[in-house]
């Protein structure tokens, strides 16, 4: 060793130190990974044990027909739900999840029993505290949970939120107001913000899911000065097949906003008569694509054999969506008549005939 | 009467098993379509209740197995959260006898099961 020059000795020493450090770092990493894995496994096992117990408990509670919740809690199966357990965050978290899992799939008395559990464990009170948090998403989540468990009671706070700058808060406020029922179903006409397509879709889906016997005052919505409320009103009238509406349909057919024109034509197609047939065919050429598609739907439901040439010409339209709609329209119109085939016989154009054969084969 | 229940949500499966046990059914439950196909051959149930979307293989595959591979007429009830008309129609076309949409009432499901089995309601 003494023969090795000093600078080489220093180099060997440095290499040994670095190697030792790397070895220690490796060991630390391996140990931490292993301990992480063991702890994750232990946690998963614990979660699954807790979940199993909670599921047994919920099942026992739902099968119980004669006891109220206080009496049930004195039974042996409820021992596990001591105050000590309930203090653990993980336990409460899983209990909350499972109550919602059950709530999601049950109806009627079974759902009411799930709601009793929710209230009994104090989740309702706790979640209502989230209303007053600064973070908007906590308010949204809390309201959605209370809506799902049907635990939303009369509250005036949502009226103020209808004009909140955040669209998620506005939407949840609308849903809350609607679900609280009564005259508040008319709350839609109190909205001052223009609704986005997404908001409209969500409101319509919510109303459909809620299966309300009383739908909003649609005439009020349709005649509202807000364009988006007008459109929402027409879409709802179409979905709920509301025939008794106080509105000037003729003025909507020529409304400057194409979305209003589309909505009224779709409504008239489903719920109206054929009085607009000629006017809509006349307007077709100058209309925008979505309005054209709505017109084709109207013609398919109210048109006669005389309208076949009009639709047939649309098979050659520049827009693919219109060509497809025209083909579907021809197929619908011809389910009860031979007008399409008669038209073909009278039409000597070879390319027209080829196109028609293609459409017939396709549909 | 033997009943096979295929449902991937563990809590709902427990509830269904417990409920039908109380109605004096001999219940076998599983959480995926693949197990359900094996159990169908093993248990030979009198009626099957199945979810549509499950891990590994779903309710459609189970219905197909019962109707096409085994050519059996065992009554099948689909219990699913899907409210898409196409899915309801296609499961009925494939051979399911009934469709119960989630959320549902236990009592309604029990009545439908008993009706299909021709036992007293």
TrEMBL record, chain B:
It holds the Pfam family Response_reg. The modification 4-aspartylphosphate is found at residue 51. InterPro entries: Bact_response_regulator (IPR050595), CheY-like_superfamily (IPR011006), Sig_transdc_resp-reg_receiver (IPR001789). The keyword Phosphoprotein applies. Residues 2-117 form the Response regulatory domain. The keyword Phosphoprotein applies. Keywords: Phosphoprotein. PROSITE patterns: RESPONSE_REGULATORY. PANTHER family: RESPONSE REGULATORY DOMAIN-CONTAINING PROTEIN, STRESS RESPONSE REGULATOR PROTEIN 1. This is Response regulator transcription factor. The lineage of its organism: Bacteria, Pseudomonadati, Bacteroidota, Cytophagia, Cytophagales.
């Amino acid at each position: 060793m003494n023969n090795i020059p000093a600078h080489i000795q220093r180099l060997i020493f440095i290499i040994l130190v670095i190697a030792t450090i790397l070895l220690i770092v490796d060991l630390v990493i391996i140990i931490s990974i292993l301990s992480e894995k063991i702890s994750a496994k232990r946690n998963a096992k614990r979660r699954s044990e807790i979940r199993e117990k909670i599921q047994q408990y919920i099942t026992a509670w739902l099968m119980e027909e004669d006891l109220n919740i206080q009496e049930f809690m004195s039974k042996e199966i409820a021992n596990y739900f001591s105050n000590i357990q309930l203090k653990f965050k993980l336990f409460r978290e899983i209990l909350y999840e499972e109550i919602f899992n059950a709530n999601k799939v049950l109806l009627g008395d079974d759902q009411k029993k799930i709601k009793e559990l929710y209230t009994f464990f104090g989740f309702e009170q706790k979640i209502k505290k989230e209303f007053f948090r600064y973070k908007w998403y906590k308010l949204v989540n809390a309201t959605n949970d209370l809506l799902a468990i049907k635990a939303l009671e009369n509250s005036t706070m949502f009226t103020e939120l209808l004009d909140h700058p955040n669209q998620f808060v506005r939407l949840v406020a609308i849903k809350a107001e609607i679900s609280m029922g009564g005259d508040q179903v008319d709350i839609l006409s109190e909205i001052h913000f223009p609704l986005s397509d997404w908001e409209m879709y969500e409101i319509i889906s919510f109303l459909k899911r809620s299966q309300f016997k009383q739908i909003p005052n649609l005439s009020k919505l349709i005649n509202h000065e807000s364009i988006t409320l007008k459109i929402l009103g027409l879409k709802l009238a179409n979905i709920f097949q509301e025939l008794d509406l106080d509105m000037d349909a003729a003025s909507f057919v020529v409304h400057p906003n194409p979305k209003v024109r589309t909505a009224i034509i779709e409504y008239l197609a489903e719920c109206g008569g054929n009085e607009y047939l000629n006017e809509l065919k006349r307007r077709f050429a100058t209309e925008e694509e979505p309005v054209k598609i709505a017109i084709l739907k109207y013609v398919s439901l109210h048109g006669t054999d005389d309208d076949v040439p009009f639709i047939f010409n649309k098979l050659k339209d520049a827009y693919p969506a219109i060509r497809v709609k025209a083909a579907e329209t021809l197929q619908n119109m011809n389910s009860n008549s031979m007008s399409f085939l008669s038209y073909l016989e009278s039409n000597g154009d070879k390319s027209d005939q080829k196109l028609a054969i293609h459409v017939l084969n396709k549909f | 009467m033997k009943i096979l229940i295929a449902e991937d949500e563990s809590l709902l499966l427990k509830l269904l098993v417990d409920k039908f046990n109380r109605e004096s059914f001999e219940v076998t439950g599983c959480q995926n379509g693949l197990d359900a196909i094996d159990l169908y051959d093993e248990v030979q149930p009198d009626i099957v209740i199945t979810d549509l979307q499950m891990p590994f293989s779903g309710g459609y595959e189970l219905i197909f197995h019962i109707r096409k591979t085994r050519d059996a007429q065992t009554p099948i009830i689909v219990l699913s959260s899907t409210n898409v008309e196409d899915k309801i129609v296609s499961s009925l076309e494939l051979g399911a006898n009934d469709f119960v949409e989630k959320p549902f009432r236990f009592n309604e499901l029990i009545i439908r099961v008993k009706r299909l089995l021709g036992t007293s309601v």
